[in-house]
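Residues determine shape. We examine one folded chain.
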Amino acid sequence: MGRLSRAELQQLNRAKVLAAARDEFAGRGFRDAKVDGIAERAGLTRGAVYSNFPGKRALYFAVLADLAERAPEPAAPDAPAPDAAHEPPYPEPDSTVSEALGAFARAWVARLPLVDTDTDTDTDEKRGSARLGMHLMPEILADESIRRPFGQLLKLDAILLGLALERLRPADAPQGRLVRVAETALTTLYGATQLADAAPGFIEPFNVVRACEQLAGLDLNDAWPPPYLPYIPHARPADEPWAPPRAVDAVRGEPARLADDGVVGILGLHRLEAAEELVRAAPPGATVTAVLVTANPGELAPLARLSVVGLRDCLRQAFPPSAWPRLQAVCDESGALAAAAGVPAVSDATEAAVRIEAGRIVARADGRGACHAAASAGAAAQARTGRAGGRRGRGGNINERQPLS
């Protein structure tokens, strides 16, 4: 076997550190785990650990994200496990909003440590997994620089869940927004998560599931308000090459469709709620992608991956493929995708967007409101094309809005 390249050696060492950290955190808990212990388990120096991860908390988030991404496809109840030649089982396509909320809640509570792990008769692996996640929320609560991005990550999760719920409604049903229902469901489920850790034996899973099912009938006065137009930037016409690197859509766990015509938003972790602008304002059929970027990729990028992938696992068990939201989410840890979109420097406050047609960037916008500007520019161009018998427009009028997706 030939000598490993520097990149290959770094990748190998990173994998060793992750495996060692998983064992250290599972065995000792996050608080008592030591970086020296992780280094010893990995057969590396303390410096080698820090060359791959900026600190213990960053390593902890990375371990949880890695475990979530490697989790096997969930099998439907009373169904055989899927093999490589078949698609994973999904709920029936005629599921109702109430049924989907119940299935989502069941998938969520199934992964909670609902009994005291000291007396549980489950496997050691389940005990270790439960113990691994117990310090996630305390670590988020401990630091404002983590709490604010986490709040926006939950906003993104609620948008994804709300969009999926909206797609389950019959065509003749009221077509209002369901993101507030999704927010309420996530509030309930995160509360259950906290109590499962803090008060073993208190949570009754059936009650949590039933409560989430009942949310479908709540009138939360949820409407999608138009933005205050004087403060929304105009999309600028452009004619630039679009050559994005390959990336993974974290919502589906498959290669992102970045070459399709559509709109791409570059969003810092303080601006993730703007992803809804991309979907609501984009023309029907457009591919919509939110690219998640941060000035602190060491800690926050794995937290972003963990949040979206955790939601994905529950979506798979609750929604048929036809109801999945059309929004893609790409965690751009290196900033390469943002750079390809013409945004070489990113921060947690970044909001920029580009519209893609035929493999080229044809419009762009920057600053607060950029996602709405670029997405509605595409809708305006599509409308003008229809009126002009096939003429393709450039730029766009941000004042034209689309119905709820």
